[in-house]
Amino acid sequence: MSSSTPDLSSIAGALADAAAAQSMRHFRTPLDIITKADESPVTLADRAAETAMREILGARVPADGIFGEEHGPERLDAERIWVLDPIDGTRSFITGSPLWGTLIGVLQGGRVVFGMVDMPVLKERWVGQAGKGATRDGQPVRVSGCTEIAKARIVTTSPDIFSPADWTAFDRLSRQCAMRRFGGDCYGYAQLAGGTIDLVVETGLQPYDFLGPAGLIEAAGGVVTDWEGRPLGLNPDQRVIAAATPELHRQALAVLAA
């Protein structure tokens, strides 16, 4: 494989392994917790994990850009950009819940072409690449065929993430679904890729929160956009909807906008 087209899955696997080596050392141990400007908690484990990931990218694809949660952007004018969240679900991590993960997305030419959701405690690695499909631990996965809101299973991380107006829209949509669940952080997106969840709707997300899951879900056959139906990119504070099918996506958008 030429240097211009590296093995994204191999590199992402190395990144996830390096992140897990740092984060798992600190999981369920006393932590020094810092509050960031956006009031979300960050731990020393977050920062050490992203540092380890960046060192690998610097060695293997030094011309690529990086957009990371903890250490900021580098070379965002590059053709290929790695989007990193070393510990997505920091509150889960801090409270000892296993439902946190490492998120890795790759943008090429402004388009998501690869996504990984790695769950170190669960020992599950979900990978999706454009044109190659999606897998969980090497086994193929695909979104469900759900096309009706009334039959859909919907999940979001917490009611606390929504503004009052956005909560009204989510509540209206979710009460029309067959089942709604709260919690799970990034794992809800993996469940959607695996066909056991049909809708994920969230707000106030940053690129490192959604681009890795978007790459996974799109490779598994799903649809991921903002609440206006537009493609996702490096814009901050996004309202995100992920759906198993185009039909379900269209219906859910209409209810959110009602």
UniProtKB/TrEMBL annotation:
Q: Which UniProt keywords apply?
A: Amino-acid biosynthesis, Histidine biosynthesis, Hydrolase, Magnesium, Metal-binding
Which pathway? Amino-acid biosynthesis; L-histidine biosynthesis; L-histidine from 5-phospho-alpha-D-ribose 1-diphosphate: step 8/9
**Gene Ontology terms describing biological process:** L-histidine biosynthetic process
As cofactor, the record names: Mg(2+)
InterPro entries referenced in this protein's UniProt entry, alphabetically: His_9_proposed, Inositol_monoP_metal-BS, Inositol_monoP_superfamily, Inositol_monophosphatase-like
Task: Drop me one GO molecular function for this one.
Answer: metal ion binding
| Residues where Mg(2+) binds | 69, 85, 87-88, 209
Quote the catalytic activity from the record. Answer: L-histidinol phosphate + H2O = L-histidinol + phosphate
Source superkingdom: Bacteria
Looking up PANTHER family in the UniProt record yields:
3'(2'),5'-BISPHOSPHATE NUCLEOTIDASE (PTHR43200:SF6), PHOSPHATASE (PTHR43200)
**Family membership:** Belongs to the inositol monophosphatase superfamily.
Query: What is the official name of this protein in its record?
Result: Histidinol-phosphatase
Source species? Acidovorax cavernicola
Lineage runs: Bacteria, Pseudomonadati, Pseudomonadota, Betaproteobacteria, Burkholderiales
